């Protein structure tokens, strides 16, 4: 489940790196999350099943929206 902390950390990482789409790898340590790495071209194998959605389709929809 995505917590407020996960959403904040991942959103800030993408914002600071000026990325519209990013894969943010987090580690859980001592009750909090820490950023492991940020990918500008994230892989999303397995995420479709975990999130019960089609990630590639959502990225295409977003890109179409951004270019008008």
Secondary structure elements and pairings:
Elements: H1 4-16, E1 23-29, E2 32-39, H2 47-51, H3 55-67
Antiparallel strand pairs: 1-2
In short:
With 68 residues, the protein is an alpha+beta fold. 46% of the residues lie in helices and 22% in strands.
The geometry reads as globular
Unreliable stretches (pLDDT < 50, length at least 5) are none
Order of helices and strands: HEEHH
Strand order of the largest sheet: 1-2
> How much beta, percentage-wise?
15-25%
Mind telling me the C-alpha Rg?
A: 13 Å
Question: Mean pLDDT, nearest integer?
Answer: 90
Helix content: 40-55%
What oligomeric state is this? single chain
Key attributes of the depicted protein:
68 residues; alpha+beta; 3 helices; 46% helix; globular
Structure overview:
It is a single chain. This protein is an alpha+beta fold. The protein is about 45% helix and about 20% strand. It contains three helices and two strands. A two-stranded antiparallel sheet has the order 1-2. A hairpin with a 2-residue loop joins β1 and β2. The longest helix has 13 residues. The protein is globular. The N and C termini lie far apart (about 30 Å). The model has no long low-confidence stretch (mean pLDDT about 90).
């Amino acid at each position: 489940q995505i917590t407020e902390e996960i959403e904040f950390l991942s959103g800030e990482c993408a914002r600071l790196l000026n990325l519209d789409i990013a894969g943010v790898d987090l580690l859980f340590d001592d009750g909090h999350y820490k950023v492991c790495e940020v990918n500008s071209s994230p892989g999303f194998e397995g995420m479709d099943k975990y999130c019960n959605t089609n990630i590639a389709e959502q990225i295409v929809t977003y890109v179409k929206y951004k270019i008008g």
